[in-house]
Design a protein that fits this description.
The chain is an alpha+beta fold and 101 residues long. It has a single domain, classed as Orthogonal Bundle (DNA Binding (I), subunit A), CATH 1.10.30. 40% of the residues lie in helices and 11% in strands. It has a two-stranded antiparallel ribbon with strand order 1-2. α3 crosses α4.
């Protein structure tokens, strides 16, 4: 497995921690038909599979976040939620860096 692929993958440990943090429900609509597998910064942009970058979303909210004209609204909601959970939260630390300087 490529290093970036591994870094962006979500481990079961992270999924369990996010599931607990998010109260076993979608952080947008509150549905319990949800999974802790949504990247705030997408994998396609190097988003890491770490707790600070993963949230629990239901299928409808996840699809809307990924594929609708409401993406910026969802992004802001997720941003604010993650920032409320991690006081020192920093988007720049959520992206895979091939070279660490």
């Amino acid at each position: 497995m490529h290093k970036q692929t591994k870094a962006c993958d979500i481990s079961s440990r992270v999924k369990n921690a996010v599931w607990e943090r998010d109260g076993h429900a979608c952080i947008i609509c509150g549905s319990h038909e949800a999974m802790p597998n949504a990247h705030y910064i997408p994998r396609s942009h190097g988003g890491l599979g770490v707790e600070e970058n993963i949230v629990t979303l239901c299928v409808n909210c996840h699809n809307a976040y990924d594929n609708s004209h409401l993406r910026s609204w969802y992004r802001k909601k997720i941003h604010d939620y993650l920032q409320s959970q991690y006081p020192s939260w920093d988007e720049d630390k959520l992206i895979y860096q091939k070279y660490h300087f």
